[in-house]
């Protein structure tokens, strides 16, 4: 069965069409991992490309992400039953003292759309929480939206080092006030200015690109 309609519906952010097309594919017996890879992931790659080229803006990206979540909700139990392995595990959180989570959530959805398993730690996440999760994941993503909470990125990386768990994970940072220079200064492995490029950066960090 052709998944073109599903891809188009995700790219257009059409939640009801995505829901219908996903169900149609499931009912037609299409392999759930094929629906994920050739339907959702390909569609989100296209959304990311359009966003980076300035053809799509935040509202279109949020709509596509929402549509993709609808489909993932239907596919998740089927994928779990098939034991489809995620590309890698990424723990995401907004740092201590910071309540902004919209950008972090978008990064999570784009990563999930790219086949990663997300451990969403939420917002205002204590360093101890990142230290606790570090041995269980491949990548830790830190988000900060204010200049006053940005230093918590540095102290979180320090805490990972002090606990002896820093070497086992890659750390990527992002958020409106964060820059590549800041990421370099605090010893992060990567930085991304937006959710779409975060996917590519994470793939590079774990050696997939
Ligand atoms: Co706040 N806020 N806010 N706020 N808020 C900003 C960030 C601010 C710039 C507004 C302003 O003054 N112009 C300002 C920060 C100024 C500064 O530090 N320089 C600010 C402030 C000051 C505050 C409070 C202190 C206000 C107050 O109470 N006096 C307070 C702080 C609370 C706290 O955190 N302790 C506060 C509170 C809030 C709300 C709760 C009301 C709400 C947050 C709701 C929520 O997130 N659930 C809020 C909002 C919505 C904003 C603005 C308007 C929008 C932020 C947003 O969601 N953008 C923001 C002003 C603005 O940006 N225009 C503002 C959309 C989102 C998709 O973009 O988060 O940048 P963004 O994420 C992008 C990239 O940055 C990147 O990818 C995303 C998608 O492309 N990215 C990553 C983000 N994380 C990444 C992680 C990665 C990689 C990329 O790897 C892991």
Keyword list:
9 helices; binds CO-5-methoxybenzimidazolylcobamide; 5-stranded parallel β-sheet; Methyltransferase, Methionine Synthase (B12-binding Domains), Chain A, domain 1; 5 strands; 209 residues; 2 domains; alpha/beta; globular; Rossmann fold
Second CATH tier, the architecture of the largest domain: 3-Layer(aba) Sandwich
Inertia-based shape? globular
Radius of gyration: 17 Å
Bound ligands: CO-5-methoxybenzimidazolylcobamide
Q: Could you name the ranges where pLDDT drops below 50 across 5 or more consecutive residues?
A: none
Order of helices and strands: HHHHEHEHEHEHEH
Determine the N-to-C terminus distance.
29 Å
Major sheet summary line: 5 strands, parallel
CATH class of the largest domain: Alpha Beta
Give the tally of β-strands: 5
What does the secondary structure layout of this molecule look like, with pairings?
Layout: H1 4-12, H2 15-27, H3 32-52, H4 58-82, E1 89-95, H5 102-113, E2 117-125, H6 127-133, E3 139-143, H7 151-162, E4 170-174, H8 180-185, E5 190-191, H9 195-205
Helix pairs in contact: 1-2, 1-3, 1-4, 2-4, 3-4, 4-5, 5-9, 6-7
This protein binds CO-5-methoxybenzimidazolylcobamide.
